[in-house]
Design a protein that fits this description.
About 35% of the residues lie in helices and about 15% in strands. With about 350 residues, the protein is of the alpha/beta class. The strands form 3 sheets. Strands 2-8-7-6-5-3-4 form a 7-stranded mixed beta sheet, sandwiched between helices. Strands 9-10-12 form a 3-stranded antiparallel beta sheet. Strand 5, helix 5 and strand 6 form a beta-alpha-beta unit. The longest helix is centred in the C-terminal third of the chain and has 24 residues. The N and C termini lie far apart (about 45 Å). The structure holds 4'-deoxy-4'-aminopyridoxal-5'-phosphate. 4'-deoxy-4'-aminopyridoxal-5'-phosphate binds next to helix 3.
Amino acid sequence: MSKFFSYKYKNLTPYTPGEQPKEREYIKLNTNESPFPPSNKAIELAKAELSKLQLYPDPDVKELTALVAQEVGVAKECVIMTNGSDEILNFAFMAYCDNDNPAIFPDISYGFYKVFAEINNIPYKEIPLREDFSVCVDDYIGTKGTVFIANPNAPTGLNLPLTEIERLVKADTNRVVVIDEAYVDFGGDSAVKLVDKYDNLIVTQTFSKSRSMAGARLGFGVANKDIIADLMAIKYSTNPYNVNKMTAAAGVGAILDKEYFTENCRTIIENREWVKGELNKLGFSVTDSKTNFVFAKTDKIDGKKLYLALKDRGVLVRHFDKDKIKEYNRITIGTIKQMQVLINTIKSILEEEK
Ligand code: PMP
């Protein structure tokens, strides 16, 4: 750190993204990317933009916004497109949190929430998950501040029923609730249908996982039009061209190719259920994940040791050095072939442990 770095950031601990190693070919199951390439339609439309890169992109991302609005069933004034869903989440921290409205989120959830709070100098409160890793909505009701809940949650994979989300949103309509639905397409139940009913709800989603576009950086927020106007004000005050031309075009292609999206989600769900079954047979306890990853532990081998042994054998998963979850590993669901290699590798590691 240089001596010039502002005092505002002296306590900042940046987010640690999952490893993207280059030194060796891994079966990469550590960052919840899709094992499938983007839709051909997305590739084709993105390519066509390459020869127009001398021009700025449309700051309103109009064509894609209209398509996304139609896809999720809201008016186009109720959608904002962003540079990954990380950006819409950051916008929500900027717009709806301050000293009077601290950020409130579960103690085990997406690690970036804490960083968004820190970079924006926002006080925050972490509410412990229940023993079984579920979110207890009653622990949030009656608190003061802006709530951020990933649903399904990460890294646990657990889904909170929509009735519980509604109970939380309805309990205090004078505060904003942000539901981060990065993984909703793999079996969750989207709160987007509640947006017309509650003007204090923001739902965020991403093209990174279910639409195979993590590298393009595309996400969006859905909310009441007044909330979207606030978020637009933040966007136009930070980075009006937040979605580049190629990404916007790829997004259009991805939405138009619904069949590819549906088929890929179906395959991931099928592979996930297969992996759960195989891990159970090997003596693992696995949470009831509704995402594109599983969260698993076994008393046959320490969580970190398993992570390192898998890495040594060319399979990369994600381990968190955090007290309550250090026995677990988060494993992204890949192709069935990758999953077979994973299971066979775990079998041989456990064999050696005996
Ligand atoms: N929310 C959750 C819960 C996530 O796990 C991620 C992915 N790391 C994101 C949001 C952000 O994803 P992206 O910026 O790629 O849309």
